[in-house]
């Protein structure tokens, strides 16, 4: 089976009280995800607070992930302020034994296709590793439309997949229309996973999976089965209705804090984040806790 088929967590980064990376928990967390049926791990992404990590910390995180998950399962997010730094990180990932790369546009600077294409091409060409293009115009202000994705795929044989996070599930069918089966398509927006699979996506770069790995894998597999015409639609609808209030926590600016809070409430993580992020407080935190508590109470009925 392709490395892109299935649930692939974009993992959080847990920090110790002194601000250092908690590698012991990182190893435990990776193992928990994989034991639940996830097919890979994406460290160093936005959810992993990659922009706050030093180069040395990023390398150490990759080493821990590869040690636990193996060389066929780690697909780090590759993003930086400059093209040169992104290329260097890609090469570090290759040297540390990662299976592939999730390549993003540069942080902060977003402009025309000529410049964004040059950046992406440089990073894609920096190694021979398989590449998943990450399209997230909401977060990164760069929208790779299907024709541009096709151009990158035609130019670079190692481009194998795209993580589609535009929030428009029509993009899945638009990419298929442009490229046929040339690329694997993965959903990158948690609360569009069932719709994305129905449209033809084969993978899920997931967020709330950090707290609910078994439930995420079951949801994904049920959605696949229903899309193929032989699944339990009633069970799918029941689980998706339960999961949606949680999945929507992944779609707002403070998604890192919200997902880490959820992890803490299920006993697999802490709320600690790195500045400029701060932990949730007051009414904002109370509202999130209410959503999570309601889901946890209902979970006992769905998974007795």
Description of the molecule:
The chain has 304 residues and is α/β, with parallel strands linked by helices. The chain has a single domain, classed as Aldolase class I (TIM Barrel). Helix content is 48%, strand content 9%. It is built from twelve helices and seven strands. Strands 1-7-6-5-4-3-2 form a seven-stranded parallel beta sheet. Helix 6 crosses helix 7, helix 8 packs parallel to helix 9 and helix 11 crosses helix 12. The radius of gyration is 18 Å and the shape is globular. The model has no long low-confidence stretch (mean pLDDT 96).
Series of H and E elements: EHHEHEHEHHEHEHEHHHH
What is the overall silhouette? globular
Low-confidence stretches: none
Major sheet details: 7 strands, parallel
Give the DSSP E fraction (strand runs of 2 or more residues): 5-15%
The helix tally amounts to 12
Q: How is the largest sheet built, in terms of strand order? A: 1-7-6-5-4-3-2
* Overall number of structural domains: 1
Structural class: alpha/beta
Residues in helices, as a percent range: 40-55%
Which assembly state applies to the chains in this document? single chain
At the fourth level of CATH, the homologous superfamily is: Aldolase class I
Distance between the termini: 32 Å
The CATH topology name reads TIM Barrel
Q: Could you give the count of β-strands? A: 7
